[in-house]
């Protein structure tokens, strides 16, 4: 079965901007973790996960984000979760993990 899912990763120095698109389910959650881990290993110290193009997320997606945050902490980096749309946001509220969400305006610096 062909997946509709893609994750875009942009790097600018110590900043990694990760944008999952479509639906965040188990398969994609694993990919997201891999990409964030890879960016951290590669020296990223601020990882922004932009959920602005995410239409759906389940508990595995949430779990992946929690793992990403732990991984970031372990290496002294910071994970930001930005632009959460109303539908995925509900799962953060239900699980009391709203503290994962970030409201800062950090974006990609101009190249
Ligand atoms: Zn932020």
Structural write-up:
By secondary structure, the chain is an alpha/beta fold. Helix content is 37%, strand content 28%. It is built from 3 helices and 5 strands; from the N terminus they run E-E-H-E-E-H-E-H. The protein has helices at residues 26-41, 59-74, 86-94; strands at residues 6-12, 15-24, 46-50, 54-57, 78-82. Strands 1, 2, 3, 4 and 5 form a 5-stranded mixed β-sheet that branches. Helix 1 (26-41) runs parallel beside helix 2. It binds zinc ion. Zinc ion (ZN) binds next to strand 5.
Notable traits:
binds zinc ion, Transcription Regulator spoIIAA, single chain, alpha/beta, 5 strands, 5-stranded mixed sheet, 111 residues, globular
Give the topology, please.
Layout lengths: L5 E7 L2 E10 L1 H16 L4 E5 L3 E4 L1 H16 L3 E5 L3 H9 L17
Parallel strand pairs: 2-3, 2-4, 3-5
Antiparallel strand pairs: 1-2
State Rg: 13 Å
* Termini separation: 37 Å
Tell me the total number of β-strands: 5
Low-confidence stretches: none
The outline comes out as globular
Which hetero compounds are present in the coordinates? Answer: zinc ion
* Average pLDDT reading: 89
Tell me the strand percentage band. 25-35%
- What's the order of the H and E elements? EEHEEHEH
CATH topology title = Transcription Regulator spoIIAA
Report the structural category. Answer: alpha/beta
CATH class, anyone? Alpha Beta
CATH architecture tag: 2-Layer Sandwich
> Helical region count?
3
Helix content: 25-40%
Total number of domains: 1
CATH superfamily: STAS domain
* Main sheet summary: 5 strands, mixed
